[in-house]
Amino acid sequence: MGSMTFHPEDPYHAFITTVRDPEYTEGPLSGVPVAIKDNISTSGIETTCGSAILRGYIPPYDAHVITLLRRAGAAIVGKTNMDEFGMGTTTESSAFGPTTNPNDSSRVPGGSSGGSAAAVAAGMVPYALGSDTGGSIRCPASFCGIVGLKPSYGRVSRFGLIAYANSLEQIGPMARDVSGVSRIFSVIAGHDPRDATSADRPYNHEPDSDVMDGLKIGIPDEYFGEGVDPAVRETVTGALDICSSMGAELIPCRMPSMQYSLAAYYVICTSEASSNLARFDGIRYGPAVNTKKRWHDAFSDYRHDHFGKEVRRRIMLGTFALSEGYYGRYYQKAQAARRMVREDFRRILTQVDIIAGPTMPTIAYRLGEKTKDPLQMYLADILTVPANLAGVPAISVPCGMIEKMPVGFQIMGSNFHEEAIIDAAYAFEQEMKHGR
Amino acid sequence: MVTEKDVMHVGKLADVGIDESELKEFSDQFTRILDYFAVLEELPEERTHAGDLHTILREDSITPSLPSEDALRNAGETEEGYIKAPRVM
């Protein structure tokens, strides 16, 4: 048993809460500081989801991933800033104010796990956990120049993750390099009976850089199409050339479901959110509701005052998509699109080992650039949502800079084959560092 | 086209409270977002959601659970071990 002090300067506002004197135990991560996204329950440490509606909420139990990290000896040093309930691509919708990008503080860190990414990129912690519903680990990893992994659906327990869209989200590791992501992933992956969607697929793997020769990489046209910044396209094409020079075979492919995936994603995530967020009524947790008012008046006033606008917008969109007369038109069609996305991945991944492309269509936005128009903000997720709809693993690894801002290279693979995408990302990273 | 009346209706269903001053903003935004969702119209309605997943069942057995004082610790108002809620009528 040991304890340490954690009193960092936080110029980028990466943390909502810091634990000043965290304790830790013996284990493979003994005394290693880990930052936790603020939608993952930590016993005795305030957990807000970046929302005023959970201000003051102290979870009475740990999420399964926290139990595993503590057991491995990690020091839980704080809770990181995030878009409110994970609903955003910039971390600007946090009720606690935005996080800024350590590479350029006039820009956003990406979202929704922006605080975790900034804390790692700024060197405040070596490792952090994020959660990824439609890109919320990979986007900030790309924008901040670090590595982030969205695991296969079911490989990491969601017990204690405060739900936004259960069928899409996973907790995953963020670190400065692929080895770090692999190290934390080996601690958090595995079966947990308290999550009914948890699979018995532990991860015990050392990244191997000797995998590029003969590796078949699928390159979907759609990942280099309209809406992707030409400079990003060029940088990622350069990354693919490096893979090719290491012996990988680049195989062009098509993902026709891409035309539907973003719309399907937003129908499904807002529908699930409208149900999940019904529990925030000020009765069981958070600031108290006025019990003198009538039921609906009390809840409407309370949720109006404590939820931010994007959260209310998504709850309403989801309520609308599930309402009588619209369910077939939106939700059921979105499920059809989701099946097409799954089938596209399955088909392509019988012909290739991994799929690669950019993580984000652009570099990090300037603060305020995307907040006016919600649809423009949603469109930024176009390259990350397919992996969530299909449940497949995806990793973002830095591959170059544009205007002194990092660009992320996204590698996706078959369900429960994190080992393959981690090895490919590691081989690429080692070549970037040492090979050239 | 999502009208201001539609926004009022959905806001009420969702219990999120809508200000008069927000009606136009939300109706414009929802109109644009639903226009974007229209790409889904050409697809069939999917009636099953399960895909190739199967349900994992467990024994319905009694296991230790959160003590009620811990469960009540974050509640706004409590009375005799119960959580107090607004009146329904």
Structure description:
The complex is a heterodimer of chains A (436) and B (89). Chain A has helices at 64-71, 114-121, 138-144, 178-188, 230-245, 258-276, 295-306, 309-322, 327-351, 374-379, 385-390, 418-435; strands at 2-3, 15-18, 23-24, 33-37, 75-80, 127-132, 147-150, 170-175, 216-220, 249-253, 354-358, 394-402, 405-412. Chain A has one domain (2-260, 330-435): Amidase signature (AS) enzymes (Alpha-Beta Complex). In chain A, α6 (258-276) crosses α8 (309-322) and α6 (258-276) packs across α9. In chain A, the strands form 2 sheets. An 11-stranded mixed sheet of chain A has the order 2-5-4-6-8-7-12-13-11-9-10, sandwiched between helices. Chain A has a two-stranded antiparallel ribbon with strand order 1-3. Chain A has 436 residues and is α/β, with parallel strands linked by helices. With 89 residues, chain B is mainly alpha-helical. Chain B has a domain at 4-42. Chain B contains 3 helices and 2 strands; from the N terminus they run αααββ. Chain B has helices at 4-13, 23-37, 68-72, and strands at 78-79, 82-83. Chain B has a two-stranded antiparallel ribbon with strand order 1-2. In chain B, α1 packs across α2. Classes of the chains: A alpha/beta (436), B mainly alpha (89). The interface between A and B is large, with 65 and 48 residues.
Per-chain topology:
The complex is a heterodimer of chains A (436) and B (89).
Chain A: E1 2-3, E2 15-18, E3 23-24, E4 33-37, H1 64-71, E5 75-80, H2 114-121, E6 127-132, H3 138-144, E7 147-150, E8 170-175, H4 178-188, E9 216-220, H5 230-245, E10 249-253, H6 258-276, H7 295-306, H8 309-322, H9 327-351, E11 354-358, H10 374-379, H11 385-390, E12 394-402, E13 405-412, H12 418-435
Parallel strand pairs in A: 4-5, 4-6, 9-10, 9-11
Antiparallel strand pairs in A: 1-3, 2-5, 6-8, 7-8, 7-12, 11-13, 12-13
Helix pairs in contact in A: 6-8, 6-9
Chain B: H1 4-13, H2 23-37, H3 68-72, E1 78-79, E2 82-83
Antiparallel strand pairs in B: 1-2
